[in-house]
Amino acid sequence: MKTKLLIILFLYSFLGFSQSEKSYVLLDSLASKYQVNKYTLNTNKLYGVHTEVEMYNILREEIILLISVLPNLYNNQPKWKEIQWQEIKNNIISPEKITRRIINIISPYEASDYMLKSKEFNKFSLVKKENEKYYVAKFSLFEWFYVVEFKSYINVSQIKNVILNLGQNPIKRIDFMEGKDNESFFIPHHLRNIYLSQVENHGNEKIYRFWTFDGWQVSDYYNEHRGIDRFAYIEGKGIVGGSYDFYFKFVPKYTSKNHIYIKLTPEQWEENGLQEKIMWAKELFPERQ
Asked: 60-118, pLDDT tens digit by residue?
């Protein structure tokens, strides 16, 4: 009995340490190695609040690492806060390691990494340097995607919602959900997927619109597994628009008096999903703001 208690205490302390440990990613280091495209999304039209999301596309051949810096809804404070170099210097992840995580996620030979998630909310924090000072994002969402183009008769396996197949036969979410209830509280893993909705011509470029079929199985915290659940992609530019319902929909049990509440009705949330409404990058789509 004593041995069992010691084991439990050890596991408890180990898990507590693992969950509290945070790693940092330097924006300058990413930009020195890879193409980084930054876009800004205005949240007012979709969520009814005057704030912004910063998106950073890190492009490495077929790999996209999307880092989203989300607004601080808790107390309406800035998205970034100053941090001392001494606090982060021993927990910095290299650009190569953070981008190649997608290979560990999708590779059948990396059995030890089977449990790696393709979407991480606040496990990693983005850090930027301005005027010789360092600033850390308060709320960072890291997502990994792998872009392919296979015709729909090729069975492209979906692993943790990471594959963006540009060659799918498009299906809109409203057509997919016809005759079905809305996404349930729980959806089995093998049914979760990213679907191509439509391909739109925009000047000399093509916009690929995607949406995610997934559940809302977490009731007391963020459904971070959904990530950017509706989004638009342009080759060479990365993800240029999206929605973050998992973040804006959840209201923490304990909030400050300055907490920003999203005042959408259940019907409005549902309509936004069915119509695949997203926020568009201000830098690329001023006409869609």
From this structure: 999 999 999 999 998 778 999 999 999 999 999 999 999 988 887 776 554 444 457 89
| Integer CA distances (angstroms), 271 to 16, 148, 211, 277, in order | 39, 30, 14, 8
Q: How is residue 111 annotated by DSSP? A: G
* Residue from 187, 197, 182 nearest 266 by CA: 182
Distance CA 136, CA 127 (A): 4
Q: Report helix, strand or coil for 80.
A: strand
Tell me how many degrees the CA angle 143-270-146 measures, rounded to the nearest 5: 20
Q: HEC string of 114-147?
A: CCCCCEEECCEEEEEEECCEEEEECCEEEEEEEE
Please state, in angstroms and rounded to a whole number, the distance separating the CA atoms of residues 52 and 66. 16
One-letter amino acid of 147: V
DSSP alpha helix (H) spans, the chain: 2-20, 27-33, 44-47, 85-88, 95-99, 101-106, 173-176, 245-249, 266-274
What is the enclosing helix (H) or strand (E) of 231? Answer: strand 230-234
Q: Write the DSSP symbol of residue 191.
A: G
Alpha-carbon distances, residue 3 vs 6, 9, 149 (angstroms): 5, 10, 54
* Alpha-carbon torsion (236, 242, 246, 248), positive or negative: positive
Global pTM reads 0.88
